[in-house]
Every structure is written in C-alpha cells, then in structure tokens.
Design goal:
The complex is a heterodimer. Chain A is α/β, with parallel strands linked by helices. Chain A contains 9 helices and 10 strands. Classes of the chains: A alpha/beta, B mainly alpha. The structure holds adenosine-5'-triphosphate and magnesium ion.
Chain lengths: 262, 228
C-alpha cells in the first residue's frame, strides 16, 4: 500500500500561542485516519492547514510524493497554484456551509461546473459536459440516500441531510483526501447515525479520509489509524485497537478515561 | 366642494408638473446613491485605516445631521460664503444642488446597509467556496452576492419609501416640486389664491407613489424568499 499523504513538522501559531507543534504523520492510499483530542488541541487548525485555509509557519505537505507546500521553499507558496492544490483535499465542515440559494443538486454541481468552464474543450461540448456533471452529482446524492431531496433547498433539509449533501459536494471534485471536521457535532443525536453510516460506506470503498471526531466508537471503528492530539502535539498515533485499549501515554489514558465516564 | 371641482382642471396640471420634479429628484437620488453607497461602504471597510476612519467620520456627520441643513449648506454655502455660486441660478441650479445633497445623504445610509449586508454573510460561505477550488471572484458573484442582496433588500426598501417623502425637504431651497406647486395656490397663481386644498391634496401623490413602490419592493422581497 502506497503512502498518499505525508505531513512533516507542521508548526502554526496564532499571535503568541503555538497551536500546532511539530506535527507529522502519514496516510496510506485508501486508508482512514481519525484524529481525536480535547477541545483546543489544534485538530481543526491542522485540517485547515491541509486545505490551505491557514498557512503553517513551518512544515511540508506532500501528496503522492509531490510537494504541495514547503515553508522553506517559497516557490510552493504561489497564490495562483494554491487553488489547484486545494483540490487535492476536500473538507466537510462541522456546520455544513451549504450555499443556501442553491438546491442540493446545484450545491453539488456548482464548483465542478465552474472548473469545467475553465477547460478549453468546454465551449465545444458544453451540453455534454453539463450532462456528465449532472449525472455524477445525481449519482453521488443517490449514494448519500438523498434521491428524494435533490431539488430541495438547504433550509428544507434536516441537519443530517445537509451534511450528506455537503459530503456529496466535496466528493464531486474527486479529492485525493477527504477531510471531516467533526461532521456530526452540529447534529441532533438521532441524526448522527445516518451521517456516520455514509462515512463508513466511503471507508469501505477505500476512500482516503481524515476524520476529526468526538465519536470515539466511530473513530475506532472506521479508522486504520488513530491520532491523539493534545495541546498542539500528536501525543500518540497508531493502530486504533492499540491506542484505545492499550494507550502508552499518560495523557491519552486520561483523555480516554474521561470519555468512558461521560 | 363645487369650488374645488371648478379649480381642479387648473390645479391638477400644476401639481402634476410639480410631481414630475419630485419624481426626477427621487430617480436621480436612487441612480446616484445606490452605487455611490457601495463605494462608500468599501471605503468604510478598507483595511487602510486612514481611509476607513475618514469614511466613517463622513458617514457619521451625514447621518447625524438633518438632511434639511445639508440641503441649505450645499445650496447656499458656495454662493454666499465662498462667493462662487457654482449651482447656477433658477430651477436648474436648485435641482442640481438638491440632487447632490440627496445623493450624498442617501449614499451614506445605503453604505451602512451594504456594510451590514456584506459582513453578515458567514465566513464559512467563503471558506466552503475556497475549499471547492473557486476563485474569490466566483465566490463573490456565485455565492455571496445573492445572500447579501437578500439581506439588503428590506432595509433598502425602507430607505426608498422614506426617500419618497424626504424629497419634499427640497422645498426649503424652493425647488418646484409638488408641495411647492400646491403652496403656490395659497399665495396666488393662475387666478387662484388663498386655496389651501391643493397643498393638502399633494398628500395623495405621495400616498399613491409610496403605495406603488411598497407593492413592487414587496414583490422583490418575495422573490428572494425561496431560500434562507
Ligand atoms: N483564527 C484564530 N486566531 C487565533 N486563535 C485561534 C484561531 N483559530 C484557532 N485558534 C486557537 O487555536 C487553538 C486550537 O484551535 P482548534 O480550533 O484547532 O482546536 P480544535 O482541536 O479543533 O478544538 P475543538 O475540538 O473545540 O474544535 C485554540 O486555542 C484556538 O483558540
Ligand atoms: Mg475544531
């Protein structure tokens, strides 16, 4: 199995506070890593760095051996390139961030259409390309169990449905690595199951994913690897069974103990 | 009553002519102030501190003083104080001065509304667009603009209805708008004098005009109700 993502020595500060300290990990193609850790430990910031929403102060990000970002090499920081690099990653937000003025289907299609318009052959086979994008989007929404909801606007959908649209929207661009930032934290408890189920299905289809979550059972279930973060540091990473059953570090033990009680 | 009916054929054309002037001022104000407001809003939001501070100061002064005083200053200040009557004489000059005062005043109100609308679109919308590989321009036009418009339309509608009535303030520099035309029949014109009903009757013009606008603007608001 080949390594798809390599994250090396990422450092990130906001003003004086160090939020990420020497964060390194790698991820194989087709595998899932779940990231757990207490509030403020830097999980969201890490995902935002991967998606180029934040620029780290130090570090290297490689996808499929290609250096996307090397803070020591200014050539990798060119604004014009960043847009393309972003497409290597997808990000599903805690609060969905669907576009309210578009239907579920339009939400999924929009970015793909805009990208297609930049292709030279778009003008020649416009109709065809649009049909392709629509077919793909419909298929993704069906896969998310939303066949009946495609023409609804976000405000007409439940939180769980919105999040599934957001997942379809991210998948439509076929990212190499799909990131989730607490995809179920904004949902009512009875709606988390349907979202976790589609993520599990994606895992079963060997989608490479990074999942930040507070759902411990899910984190353990879905992942090939678990990362525990605390205070901007990766304290422990490894096989889910190992980390959850035999944590080596004291901080991991304490964190997991708190979850078992709660 | 009979007298009124008798005077009607003389009064109505005069009031209509006045109302044309009212309507012109109204339209010029909108056409000027709606876009100028956007420029001022961007000034107030500028990251260049001196510009944003200066813009906010101007907005504060314009919104903190009566439009009537602004009208008087803009109309009389160049001629009386600077000895440079830039507006020219007669109705044309008065209309020019009134237009400048109204456009600037309303632009400042619109600017604050725009600023609120622009800042009310959650940052998550922009970030979602970026993550999907959209450019900032695409995000503005395809994602944020309509959400801003939706938030801006109701308060802008209120201002527009207020503007209908505010145009009457231009009476203070003797612009020959509908109230001036009505009042003329008190002082005496075209063989009628001492008649107060034409002045009262001008209210009907405002009522119909603002009624029509309320319906139209309400339709626009409804059009945007399909999303939240
Ligand atoms: N834009 C920012 N400016 C300043 N500080 C920030 C910013 N974003 C995050 N932080 C700080 O960085 C630290 C890590 O935040 P982050 O959101 O990455 O944590 P998290 O692990 O995702 O927490 P949670 O589980 O609550 O989502 C926190 O102390 C936070 O206050
Ligand atoms: Mg977070």
């Amino acid at each position: 199995m080949s390594v798809l993502l390599e994250v090396e020595h990422i450092e990130k500060s906001f003003e004086e506070t160090k939020v990420l300290k020497d964060v390194s990990f790698s991820l194989n193609e087709g595998e899932v890593v779940s990231i757990i850790g207490s509030s403020g430990s830097g999980k969201t910031t890490l995902l935002r760095c991967l998606n180029f929403l934040e620029t780290p102060d130090e570090g290297v990000i490689k996808v499929a051996n290609e250096v996307l970002l090397d803070m020591k090499n200014p050539a990798t920081l060119k604004e014009s390139e960043i847009r393309k690099k972003r497409l290597r990653f997808g990000l599903v937000f805690q609060s969905f961030n669907l576009f309210p003025q578009y239907t579920a289907l339009e939400n999924v299609m929009l970015a793909k259409e805009l990208l297609a318009k930049e292709q030279p052959e778009y003008k020649l086979r416009k109709k065809e390309i649009q049909e392709e994008i629509k077919a793909l989007s419909v298929k993704l929404l069906q896969q998310m169990g939303l066949s009946e909801r495609m023409n609804n606007y976000p405000h007409q959908l439940s939180g769980g449905q919105c999040q599934r649209v957001a997942i379809a929207r991210a998948l439509a661009l076929r990212p190499d690595i799909l990131c989730f930032d607490e995809p179920t934290s904004a949902l009512d408890p009875e709606l988390t199951g349907e979202v976790l189920r589609v993520i599990k299905e994606l895992a079963d289809q060997n989608t490479t994913m990074i999942i930040v979550t507070h759902e411990m059972a899910f984190a353990r279930d879905v992942a090939n690897k678990v990362i525990f973060m605390d205070d901007g540091v990766i304290v422990e990473q490894g096989d889910p069974k190992e980390v959850f059953e035999n944590p080596k570090e004291e901080r991991t033990k304490q964190f997991l103990a708190r979850y078992k009680q709660g | 009553m009979e007298l009124i009916l008798e005077q009607m054929p003389i009064v109505l054309p005069a009031l209509n002519a006045g109302f044309i002037q009212t309507l012109k001022l109204f339209l010029v104000t909108l056409v000027g102030a709606l876009p100028l407001g956007l420029v001022i809003a961007f000034g107030a939001m500028s990251r260049f501190k001196p510009l944003s501070l200066l813009t906010k100061l101007v907005i504060w002064i314009v919104r903190g003083t009566p439009l009537m005083i602004q009208l008087l200053i803009i109309y009389y200040f160049p001629g009386l104080v600077l000895d440079n009557p830039i507006w020219g004489s007669g109705e044309k000059g008065r209309f020019l001065a009134a237009s400048v005062a109204f456009v600037f005043n309303y632009a400042c109100y619109f600017a604050e509304i725009y600023r609120g609308g622009i800042q009310s679109v959650p940052i998550g919308q922009e970030e979602a667009g970026l993550v999907l590989g959209m450019t900032k321009t695409q995000i503005f036009f395809r994602v944020k603009l309509l959400q801003m418009i939706k938030r801006i339309v109701p308060p802008v509608s209120n201002e527009i209805i207020t503007l209908v009535k505010d145009t009457s303030l231009s009476r203070i520099i003797a612009l020959q708008e509908v109230i001036w035309a009505g009042q003329a029949f008190m002082k005496g014109t075209q063989g009628i004098s001492g008649a107060i009903w034409p002045l009262f009757f001008t209210a009907v013009y405002y009522l119909i005009f603002s009624g029509v606008l309320t319906v139209l603007l309400g339709k626009l608001e409804q059009k945007l109700e399909y999303f939240r």
